[in-house]
Design brief:
Zincin-like; 2 domains; four-stranded mixed beta sheet; disordered C terminus
């Protein structure tokens, strides 16, 4: 008896070189193929990846149930930046005479003032502040690691990516996600080492993983912890409350030669 294939959608991409799988709550199973790809080959390839697909769909369902139990109803009372060992209580002060929303730090607290302290402008202001904390706190750590291990790092950027903890460009520029601030220091260090290794190898070949292991021997353990790390991100940090940073998207390596890591936190050049 043959196992029925799950429903899937096909999307052609000019950038894709091989078939790639992606699972999201919005689209379900998505098959990304290069232009002109013979779609008759898809079913057989999906059968090869049936274990990965089943695991990814299961995890997406678990993510949805987890997020539904934690929906944001109120403004945050504090910001806990685990990566930097900081906890910032928030004090809200409504002032009718002051237009807009203003944020300042005072004696280890965040003071947020404004005439209309609704969720959207307050969260926007908090995200702006988090970008500054990445520059002040994580940039120096990244530069120190790069100098210590002789990586040729060109520049650093701050982003609030939806699906990546960090990324490395072909020009050796690293982009750090503000959500890294909510991870433990050991996970942050692993993410940085991973991306710095991409300044040498812009891929996930054996040579790349050997380099990662040289600087982080326990990378497999940390990699496993990173799979669940999105749960540490406060829900108000997400661009859309129904989506998580990494769990919202699950990708398989490029087929047919890709690995079967499954729901991997680092795939396709991230």
């Amino acid at each position: 008896m043959q196992t029925a294939l799950p429903d899937y959608h096909v999307r052609q991409s000019q950038k894709a070189k091989n078939l790639r799988l992606k699972v999201t709550r919005e689209e379900g199973l998505l098959v990304v193929v290069p232009k002109g790809y013979d779609e008759k080959k898809i079913p057989s390839l999906l059968k090869q990846k049936k274990v990965w697909i089943a695991d990814a769909l299961k995890r997406i369902g678990e993510t949805q149930r987890f997020l539904e139990s934690r929906r944001v109803k109120h403004l945050p009372e504090a910001v806990h930046l685990v990566a930097l060992g900081e906890r910032w209580p928030i004090i809200y002060r409504e002032e009718e005479s002051r237009s807009g929303v203003w944020l300042r730090t005072e004696n280890g607290k965040l003071i947020i003032r404004g005439s209309r302290l609704s969720q959207e402008p307050v969260i926007r202001k908090l995200k702006d502040w988090l970008r500054r904390r990445v520059r002040e706190g994580l940039f120096p750590i990244t530069r120190t690691l790069a100098a210590k291990h002789h990586f040729k790092l060109r520049g650093l950027l701050v982003k609030n990516q939806r699906t990546r903890w960090a990324s490395c460009s072909a020009q050796r520029n690293l982009s750090l996600n503000t959500k890294l601030l909510f991870l433990s220091p050991d996970l942050v260090r692993y993410v940085l080492i991973h991306e710095l290794c991409h300044t040498v190898h812009m891929n996930h070949t054996r040579e790349f993983w050997r380099l990662v292991q040289a600087y982080e021997p326990c990378y497999r353990v940390l990699d496993e912890k990173l799979r669940q790390a999105w749960k540490a991100i406060p829900l108000w940090m997400l661009s859309h409350p129904e989506q998580s940073p990494r769990a919202a998207t699950s990708k398989a390596d490029e087929l047919p030669s890709g690995s079967t890591h499954g729901w991997h936190p680092y795939l396709n050049g991230e």
